[in-house]
Specification:
There is one protein chain. The chain folds into two domains: 72 residues, 60s Ribosomal Protein L30, Chain: A (2-Layer Sandwich), CATH 3.30.1330.30; 165 residues, SPOUT methyltransferase, trefoil knot domain (Alpha/beta knot, 3-Layer(aba) Sandwich). Helix content is 34%, strand content 19%. A seven-stranded parallel beta sheet has the order 7-6-5-10-8-11-9, with helices on both faces. The chain has a four-stranded mixed beta sheet with strand order 1-4-2-3, with helices on both faces. Strand 5, helix 5 and strand 6 form a beta-alpha-beta unit. The longest helix is centred in the last third of the chain and has 22 residues. It is elongated and about 55 Å long.
Length: 280
């Protein structure tokens, strides 16, 4: 009787990936992210249309806003796909997508804070957020920073929320226009700003001076903490000055994004007044 063949047989080859059109095996594409909402997607289409892979829209929406949006997307050469509400909600991770969801490629990494400041003409205006972890608050802060003309928003890497689809939606496009720079050591970064003769003004409910008594016309970094905890102790000690927003009602504090708007636009007001009073 012939003995059984005990030689090791080769392992089966893994199944080939399905072929793409043209007969080549498919390869995993580059990583993508999702943006949703009219403002966030419109800004990306306007500023970096080549990074938009496709825009999915709710096929049941035929209103004027959707028609104008679709025309702008088509004019930019971006692919539009009609979809339904359930699929859009799955892609966006929320039902509050406004009938618009885009798959996009990540933009190149943000430039450094030094690069941003080197390019600034006139006195820099920087918003620093210490401990803001809620994406809705971050999105709103980016929106007011854009509106007030801030050159960058800075946050610590370990005590802050990063950019995500919710931030981009709330920011209404400002997440694409305002550099959001996360740093390893916030106190050290504030020290580096001081070396550039940028004054560090923090906020605190117990500060002796009012925001409206402070001179905010020169190179400036406004530092705000999360509602409740406020600034961390090391951050407070690093500031050149602390100011408070005077409150006239029963509430004792403002949401951080509202406070950021108050501070940034007061700085903006003072700068516009100084420019108007300067001799021609």
């Amino acid at each position: 009787m012939t003995p059984p063949d005990r030689r090791q047989r080769p392992a089966p080859k893994p199944a080939a990936r399905p072929a793409e059109p043209g007969g080549h095996p498919s390869r995993p594409g580059p990583p993508t992210k999702v943006l949703f909402g009219f403002h966030a997607v419109t800004v990306r289409v306007k500023t970096a249309p080549e990074s938009v892979l496709e825009v999915q829209v709710d096929a049941t929406r035929r209103d004027a806003r959707m028609r104008q949006f679709a025309e702008r997307v088509a004019a930019a050469g971006v692919r539009i796909v009609e979809s339904d509400d359930a699929r859009l909600a799955r892609l966006a991770g929320t039902a509050r997508h406004q009938g618009v969801v885009a798959r996009v490629l990540p933009l190149p990494p943000r430039v450094s804070l030094d690069d941003v400041l080197d390019a600034v003409q006139g006195p820099p205006l920087v918003l620093v957020l210490d401990g803001v972890t809620d994406p809705h608050n971050l999105g709103a802060c980016l929106r007011v920073a854009d509106g007030a003309g801030a050159h960058a928003v800075v946050a610590p890497r370990d005590h802050a929320v990063g950019l995500n689809a919710t931030v981009a939606k709330v920011a209404s496009g400002a997440a694409e226009t305002v550099p959001y720079l996360m740093v390893v050591n916030l106190a050290r970064t504030l020290g580096e700003l001081k070396e550039r003769d940028i004054r560090i003004v923090g906020t605190g409910d117990d500060a002796p001076r009012s925001l409206y008594e402070a001179d905010l016309r020169g190179p400036l970094a406004l530092v705000l903490g999360a509602e409740g905890p406020g600034l961390r102790q090391l951050t407070r000690r690093t500031c050149d000055e602390l100011v408070r927003i005077p409150m006239a009602g029963a509430v004792e504090s403002l949401n951080v994004s509202v406070a950021a708007g108050v501070c940034l636009f007061e700085a903006r007001r003072q700068r516009m007044a100084a420019a108007a009073a300067a001799p021609p």
